[in-house]
Amino acid sequence: MTPLLTSIGGATVAEMQAQVERAIASGTEGFELRLDHLEPRVEPSAVAEVLARMRPGSWVVTLRSVEEGGRCAAPAEARLGFLLAATAGQAGCLDFEYRAWPAGLGGRAWAVAGAGHRWILSFHDFREQPADVPALARAVVAAGPEVVAKVAWAGHSLSDNIVAFEIMRELGERVIAVVMGEVGLASRVLAKKFGAAATYCALSAEAETAPGQVALDDMLHKYRWNAITPATHLFGVLGHPVRHSMSPALFNRMFERGGMDAVYLPLLVAGEESELVAFLEHCERRPWLDVGGFSVTLPHKQAARRFVGSRIEPLAARLGAVNTLAMRDGRFYGYNTDYAGALDALCHGLTCARTELRGLCVDVLGAGGGARAVVAGLTDCGCAVTVFNRTPDSAAALAAEFGCRSAPWDDRVRRTGHVVINCTSVGMTPDTEGSPLPAEALQDRPVVFDTVYHPVETRLLREAQQVGCLTIDGVEMFVRQAAAQYQIWFGGTADVAEMRQIVLRELRGNVVLIGYRGSGKTTVGRLLADRLEYAFVDTDALVVERAGKAIAAIFAEDGEVAFRRREADVIAEASRRSRVVLSAGGGAVLGEANVRRLRDCGTVFWLGADAETLWSRISRDAASAAGRPALTQRADLDEVRHVLGERETLYQGCAHHRVDVADRTPAEVVEVIEAILRRVGQPVERVSMIAAKWPGE
Fold first, then answer.
1. Fewest beta carbons less than 10 Å away: which of 522, 532, 554, 596?
2. Within 13 A of 665's CA, how many CA atoms are on the CB side?
3. 431-463: pLDDT as tens digits
4. Among this protein's residues, is 301 annotated catalytic?
């Protein structure tokens, strides 16, 4: 069984121990302790104490040299001596550089290491793939009894993963093969499929100790590490960029719920068409990869169409673009689901069938690949389409190909259609303040459809809702094209509503609750976490746990400054997690850094109420009140009024939404929050009613 090792790189022994405890709580199977990250002058005995508290055989320790990508400049002899001293008498694995091993160190190491130790001899190349990596791996394995070879190199092509897969297939539990960098993600996640000795992950996205390490939480949850078997089928999205694609979270959750032995990965193809072709050819020649199919995104849809040749559905051939590849009898076949996704999203929003779209006037903004599929679908349904684009020639060419009109970009502000569809990237994260239409141009437009799905509620949609338009968001199109892919790959019908909820959960990030004490953050937070299937984090509880005393005692003995420092540390740590409902202390908003972190990590809800309601709740909870500090010299209700008055502006500035909790039960507050989280435009009359607004058009 291939263990998942979390790489730990704390600067102090205490920090290393804390990271180990976090990783255990998160579900890791073992550890790589990077001792080269420790501050100088740490004694081997201090490391030994950390190892003594760990499960025997669950750890690897290394003191990586600068030449091999580490931080230790000491000579090889000194580094080996430190490792042996720190691990003496304990059962685990030592990692040492293969390059240094033949230089007189090997014999001494075998003699001194003692019973119970295993060895990893590692080789790293941070520039390129070595000339003959399989031969190198075999040579390392031959260096000593039961040696595990680790070969890691900088990846420059997706096909580098194929080399790693073949090494792992050949040497199995005697090797660790890693392609470093984003392009090598598959070599890390699929190590278990091919029976490698181990694979490595980072404690969090910010804590990687080698290029391309995947966060522990992502390995376990997003990429289904515990469910991977030798028979796992490979799916993924091919494109550049792919790091922030929603597809892996969506499909892996669908695989989990369907009990499928499959995994879906983001597969970076940063090079030209030749890189894509090479990888696809590798997949066709290697049935043992168990490839089921791939999604294809920018900029490779046209290249994928050329690759499949005649093995293509008529619609994709007409569009000249393939966004879905399915493996059939050892060859890839091409499809396009963007077309269906756009039409199905529009029909869902209008509560109509495709046949009822005939005669609908539609303004399409943009003339790129996304617009191409939208225009093709609309014209096939008999819609009267006008294409607007900043580059007039592109708009004219697209319109001519599909038999519709084009118009100058500046004319988009004049309403000509019943529906306007944004197919540009304007308003997409991170530039969320942009909009392809000024607010005043949204008046009297019945339907506004934005194909951007991150954020869900773009500025265009928000302003359209404010003037009463029906809005259709990009998530609807995204999940419907994904549902069509699912059907191509598996033949069944996907639950679109469920898929939408999965994507919305991923897009919104964490859920953060702020507010004065007595607002119910803890009770609401626990209920909401259960409903969303998230973890629950209470920052006050974490501060108390780590300090070993109540908040009132921290204030009294250490002072408020010390408490705020502890609180800031906990918030910084908690905000790096994913899939959590986070309840922040009442005074968390006093720190600017806290506010920034809370807003950046998810959707912030202020649970608000008047002072009288809050004091009534606080006074009924004697145990909680006893553990809280007095913040002023005022009487109890007066203190609540005074402090709440000081903080209300801060709560408002931190929150994305305010929920009044005064007359609601915790369960009712949860319902309100869930409604906000899934909020989209509401369907209106059928398309025939919309068309009737302008007689004669």
1. 596
2. 3
3. 878 999 999 999 888 899 999 988 888 899 989
4. yes
